[in-house]
Amino acid sequence: MTKWEYQVAPILNHAAAQILNNFGEDGWELVSILDNGTGNYVGFFKRAVSE
């Protein structure tokens, strides 16, 4: 069975693409994104845990 780890991180609107690309390069997959009401977002990420 795959084991997962999770990360919650702010996604600043003016740098969203770079932030998402950086997480992707580190193996994180964006699961969900929510507007935090300030014009920025909160991203929820997951990646498989290496055993």
Work out the strand percent: over 45%
Count of separate DSSP helical elements: 1
Number of strands: 3
Unreliable segments of 5+ consecutive residues: none
SSE order, as H and E?
EHEE
Average of pLDDT: 94
Radius of gyration over all CA atoms, rounded: 12 Å
- Give the CA-CA distance, first to last residue: 11 Å
With strands numbered from the N-terminus, the spatial order across the biggest sheet is 1-3-2
Helicity range of the residues? 10-25%
Shape: elongated
Structural class: alpha+beta
Overview of the molecule:
- It comes from Nocardioides luteus.
- Pfam families: DUF4177.
- This is DUF4177 domain-containing protein.
- The structure is a single chain.
- It is built from one helix and three strands, in the order βαββ.
- The protein is elongated and about 40 Å long.
- 2% of the residues are buried.
- A three-stranded antiparallel sheet has the order 1-3-2, with helices on one face.
- By secondary structure, it is α+β, with helices and mostly antiparallel strands.
- It has one helix at residues 16-25; strands spanning 4-11, 29-35, 41-48.
Secondary-structure map:
Elements: E1 4-11, H1 16-25, E2 29-35, E3 41-48
Antiparallel strand pairs: 1-3, 2-3
Any key phrases for this structure?
alpha+beta; DUF4177 domain-containing protein; YjzH-like; 3 strands; 51 residues; three-stranded antiparallel sheet; 20% helix; 45% strand
